[in-house]
Amino acid sequence: MTIEKIRELIGKMTLEEKASLCSGEDFWHTKAIERLGIPAAMLTDGPHGLRKQDGRGDHLGLGDSIKAVCFPAGCATAASFDRELIEKMGETIGNECQAEGVAVILGPAVNIKRSPLCGRNFEYYSEDPLVASEMAGALIKGVQSKNVGTSIKHFLANNQEHRRMSSSSEVDERTLREIYLAAFEGAVKKQKPWSVMAAYNKINGVFAPENKTYLTDVLRSEWGFDGYVVSDWGAVNDRVLGLEAGLDLEMPSTKGVNDKLSVEAIKEGQLEEKYLDLACERMLDVLYRYIENRDPEAVFDREMDHEFAKKVAEECIVLLKNDGILPLKKSANIAFIGKYAKQPRYQGGGSSHINAAKITSAMDAVEHRNNILYAQGFDDKADVVDEVLLAEAVEAAGKAEVAVIFAGLPDAFECEGYDRSHMRLPGCQNTLIHAVCEVQENVVIVLHNGSPVEMPWIKKVKGVIECYLGGEAVGSAQVDILFGDVNPSGKLPESFPIKLQDNSSYLYFGGEGDIVEYREGVFVGYRYYDKKEIEVLFPFGHGLSYTEFEYSDLKLDKEQMKDTENLRVSVIVKNTGAMKGKEVVQLYVGCEGGSIIRPLKELRGFEKLELMPGESKEVTFTLDKRAFAYWNTTLHDWHVETGAYKIMVGRSSRDIVLEQEIQVDSTVKVPRVYSYASTIGDIMADPDKAGIISGLMSNMGGRREAAAEVPQQNDAISPEMVQAMMQGMSLRNILTFTGMPKEVFDNLIIELNK
Ligand code: BGC
């Protein structure tokens, strides 16, 4: 519907009707205005499938929803690093939405995995904002190509479940820009989600749904967002403030209570009606994008989508360790041990929970074979060792040639609403793994978890595959990977620390009361581990294959550039092994030296490519200003410091294969204000002002000799020491130490600030 028509429609509405349009009818629907022929629309959770509730709704995944297909969760899809695949998953879900009459699916969820402990990490993508926003963008693109909306969430800085409704994420400007906003930015700018969901928490003291800085200034004015902002379910604190800040839709229904408040505020002159009109405009615009593009042909084919869920799961599995044990021989006698071999953990708990139509476990997938034994091994409802299950498992492992243990975090460990308290697997599973390793030297671990776990047995086992929460078809994908019918190609979208205490947010995660300080700043994940040279269990970007890839011919199309230019980087990757495989080529940029405290490297590009044995392909990346920039808090903008930057290409953040340097020159000058507190060093470092200060230094002449406090070279003080001390002196120091006339300095400061 055109904007003119929409405005015409709004012109016919009463104030009460306008207010009613901006809040839910019930848990999942917006309100219809029958008098004007405006229909209601349904919003439904996702994002890795449909959680469409028929009857009374809830936002915690408690009640039933229709049978649907559970695709791999965000944690897993990020590991695919495959934009095309995730776009296709989006198309599939979009089609399901069309078939089921769903106008907007609530996701993707892109919050940064700041700590391994966040209860909703399984829904989130990565510790890195580029991965998060690219993968989210791919899903948005796919869903919206079917004329169904997405609602990217939870905007903003919602990185823990503990006190999620009341806590304030205290984050500095640069960190917000470089990490937490950046996770949304690329997806919003490039893929234009129809909706953004405002989070429960506060950002620096202001509730997200009434935070004008982010909902209007950043989201709309800077990024060009043109859909509607919906509150997370029950997140509205002050409806009137929210409308003014840019919150369009309140969900779920407040039974008219908040609609009344909006109407009163307008009548009493506390809120300008234009804010409500604008919210209605956005609501109707998004509504008619869907209503006018219904697909009557769409069919939700659960069987077909299940097969596709398997395909997605295959691409998400990460081979973490392989001492030559994988792929397994199909003829070998193998013991599948662990409850998750029969009942995989394939999704997390809470609002994203899908009522899966069909679940394929690894045991289902090998049911036609007679050389695979099964033993349950542990009870995932309890942490205590079940001696009978343990004994059976050890016996099965002892009889087999290989033991594959299906381990992971139980449902209760990963759920919306609360965080994990530690990073360990349940004790009974660790005991089982150690016990099996006593009787069997060929042990492979298959993991099911939404974020990192400690692996105290890592040296004893020969193989580890990380499946994350791989969706309802994960079992068949696991079997295909274990036996080499599919070559693993996932990479870790997050670092696996050795222990929780190594994580940079460890001291502050969870916060004190409602204050959660993000004191680690931009040093999240590998940005921290790399800078501190902390050993990790598995680094960001890590993932093995059954084949080998060789990197060569890293080329930059220039040696020096201005920050307004683009850099073209190319590299050749060759499959030197015997099996077809896929590699995720990662490009990092780093700047050593310079005056800004920065990570050693940051991911600025990735491409997944498939190569036949012996085949080579060239991969190219185009880097713009942003690849070299940090957020400058004087400019309140992205800024590139002049200097040498390293372009690093590799298999993971800790396996950089090729690197080259490029000189990047800034075209922007950061304005500086000089005062008596300015140091000689800072003034000398400013090429436009250095001359002025050298003039002063030579004028000091005899006075300099007389001023004992001004450093002088002698037997105990070297010229370097004199220079270092001088650099740190301020104009005020020079004034007091030398006794030069104050007017000289007053004029000098005027001159410096010209
Ligand atoms: C969650 C959202 C979800 C909504 C609706 C909230 O509790 O935070 O992610 O979309 O409920 O179920």
Please, could you describe this protein's structure?
There is one protein chain. The protein has 754 residues and is an alpha/beta fold. It has 4 domains: 242 residues, TIM Barrel, CATH 3.20.20; 195 residues, Glycoside hydrolase family 3 C-terminal domain (Rossmann fold); 117 residues, Immunoglobulins (Immunoglobulin-like, Sandwich); 73 residues, no CATH class. A hairpin with a 4-residue loop joins β26 and β27. α1 crosses α11, α2 crosses α10 and α4 packs antiparallel against α12. The longest helix has 19 residues. Bound molecules: beta-D-glucopyranose. Beta-D-glucopyranose (BGC) binds next to loops.
Provide a count of the helices. Answer: 22
Q: Looking at this structure, what is the CATH superfamily of the largest domain?
A: Glycoside hydrolase, family 3, N-terminal domain
How many strands appear in the DSSP assignment? 29
Task: Give the biggest beta sheet.
Answer: 6 strands, mixed
Within the CATH hierarchy, at the fold level, what is the topology of the largest domain?
Answer: TIM Barrel
Portion of residues in beta strands equals 15-25%
Shape label:
globular
Helix content: 25-40%
Overall pLDDT: 96
User: Which oligomeric form is depicted?
Assistant: single chain
Question: What are the low-pLDDT stretches, counting only 5+ consecutive residues below 50?
Answer: none
In angstroms, what is the radius of gyration? 29 Å
Spatial separation of the terminal alpha carbons: 54 Å
At the first level of CATH, what is the class of the largest domain?
Alpha Beta
Spatial sequence of strands, sheet with the most strands: 10-16-15-14-11-13
